[in-house]
Amino acid sequence: MRSLSARRHWVFDLDGTLTRAVHDFALIRRELAIPAEQDILGHMAALPAAQAAAKRAWLMAHERELAAASVPAPGAVALLRALHAAGCQLGILTRNDHALAQLTLAEIGVQDLFPPQAIVGRDEAVPKPHPAGLLLHAARWGVAPGELVMVGDHGYDLEAGRAAGAMTVFVGATNAWPALSDHAYADCEALRQACWPEATAAG
């Protein structure tokens, strides 16, 4: 297996991976009357159209507020710029809305690294943990899914990566999914230091 630093096609989860985690999913479920054990997007997808539309509207408004207040996760900007400087392809795979993902990337100062086609949101592909978004990235880049690295902070990210055949990297304080992750780091800064220690730590 090639080392991480030799990989050239990187896909990142957004919220909680490249940004500091702020989503309160328990609050979202309460506001939208979604049972605690149910996936939020899956629950809404199964609702009658009118009911689903009302809940999506609330979710979009809530997520827009969060996106507008986004703060980069430790080392995220430096990691992305190190990868970009090395000539790597960069992509986003998020369960958020495409436009809100663009807003988030602008807020943390890396929108220049991600043209619109580099972002796959919940309306462009079946959301994670389904691998469809990763397969779409691979197709757009003209590479085999096994060439991808999927970086995220949740089991959904790792499940999607495994299902696509990508290398999986967990970033976070506690890895609850060790069987699904090929690598694990405390945060993006630790990942950057492990693979590109010569890159600037600014950001």
From TrEMBL:
SUPFAM superfamilies cross-referenced by the UniProt entry: HAD-like
UniProt keywords, alphabetically: Hydrolase
Gene3D superfamilies in the cross-refs: 1.10.260.80, HAD superfamily/HAD-like (3.40.50.1000)
Listed GO MF terms: hydrolase activity
Keyword Hydrolase: yes
InterPro entries in alphabetical order: HAD-like_sf, HAD-SF_hydro_IA, HAD_sf
Pfam families with a match to the protein in the record: Hydrolase
PANTHER family reported in the protein's UniProt record: HALOACID DEHALOGENASE-LIKE HYDROLASE (PTHR43885), SUPERFAMILY HYDROLASE, PUTATIVE (AFU_ORTHOLOGUE AFUA_4G13290)-RELATED (PTHR43885:SF1)
Record-given protein name: HAD family hydrolase
